[in-house]
């Protein structure tokens, strides 16, 4: 592996091989979603416990100080909105030259396997990988499902993750599923990072799915709304950090959360 590529990948993962990415890219299709109206204020108390920030170029330039010292994963696909006809109809919104100018450690691209725009989004991924390989920039593929939440089963996720890896993604972000997640991870030859998905009803529910996914082979988290939309975001962030990097079981994580809230 090229030195620059390896160096950037290593910046995203801690010495234990795990990661906790903080995504605040939701505005690219949701607009000013709750608690991200002022992203800089939202993330300031959370970033000491995160390993990298997943963000668009617009928010990075407008809201994040250049002195920010965590790796940046730059969201470079988009072009659709939640009120449009089809979230899968994405384009590449940001050039690799922009990613280099912004000192990104990696870039993120969504793929919508099984959708009407499957080929187009897989083309977005392959073209991005082709360009990024020339400059040593890792690509994180996001196995998006749009509004079709029923697709989040192990068979579908295994398919989507493997295709993303086959096309050159260095990391795959996907959803946890309660049955067969170990098979999803085992079938993907690159690191799998869990997405947060919809808001969970209880803190324990979050801790349990995260712990389960890590036990089944995921290397970490890319989780946002279940943290920054929570009434006690710092407490839940600390608890999740203990699960990811400290191996804390759900009961211990709940104990940490209750002591911090």
Structure, described:
- This protein has helices at 3-12, 27-30, 39-43, 57-63, 96-101, 118-135, 154-166, 181-186, 203-215, 225-228, 233-246, 250-260; strands at 19-23, 52-55, 72-75, 77-78, 91-92, 106-111, 139-143, 171-175, 192-195, 220-222.
- The chain is globular and about 45 Å long.
- The chain is of the alpha/beta class and 261 residues long.
- The protein has a single domain (3-195), classed as TIM Barrel (Alpha-Beta Barrel), CATH 3.20.20.
- The strands form two sheets. It has an eight-stranded parallel barrel with strand order 1-2-3-6-7-8-9-10, surrounded by six helices. It has a two-stranded antiparallel sheet with strand order 4-5.
- Helix 9 runs parallel beside helix 11 (233-246), helix 9 (203-215) packs across helix 12 (250-260) and helix 11 runs antiparallel to helix 12.
Summed up:
This protein is α/β, with parallel strands linked by helices and 261 residues long.
Key descriptive features of the protein:
261 residues, alpha/beta, 8-stranded parallel β-barrel, two-stranded antiparallel ribbon, TIM Barrel, 15% strand, 12 helices
């Amino acid at each position: 592996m090229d030195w620059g590529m390896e160096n950037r990948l290593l910046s995203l993962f801690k010495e234990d091989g795990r990661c906790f990415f903080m995504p605040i890219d939701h505005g690219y299709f949701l607009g000013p979603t709750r608690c991200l109206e002022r992203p800089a204020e939202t993330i300031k108390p959370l970033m000491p416990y995160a390993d990298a920030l997943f963000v668009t170029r617009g928010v990075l330039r407008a809201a994040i100080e250049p002195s920010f010292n965590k790796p940046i994963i730059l969201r470079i696909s988009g072009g659709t909105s939640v009120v449009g006809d089809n979230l899968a109809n994405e384009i590449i919104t940001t050039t690799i030259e922009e990613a280099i100018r912004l000192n990104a450690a990696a870039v993120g691209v969504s793929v919508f396997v099984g959708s009407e725009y499957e080929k187009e989004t897989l083309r977005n991924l392959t073209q991005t990988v082709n360009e990024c390989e020339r400059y040593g920039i890792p690509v994180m593929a996001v196995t998006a499902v749009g509004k079709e939440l029923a697709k989040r089963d192990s068979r579908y996720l295994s398919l989507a993750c493997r295709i993303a890896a086959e096309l050159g993604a260095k990391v795959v972000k996907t959803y946890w599923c309660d049955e067969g997640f170990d098979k999803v991870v085992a079938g993907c030859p690159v690191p799998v990072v869990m997405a947060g998905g919809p808001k969970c009803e209880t803190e324990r529910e979050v801790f349990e799915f995260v712990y389960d996914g890590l036990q089944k082979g995921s290397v970490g988290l890319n989780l946002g709304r279940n943290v920054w939309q929570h009434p006690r975001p710092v407490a839940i962030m600390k608890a999740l950090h203990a699960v990811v990097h400290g191996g804390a079981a759900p009961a211990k994580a709940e104990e940490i959360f209750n002591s911090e809230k």
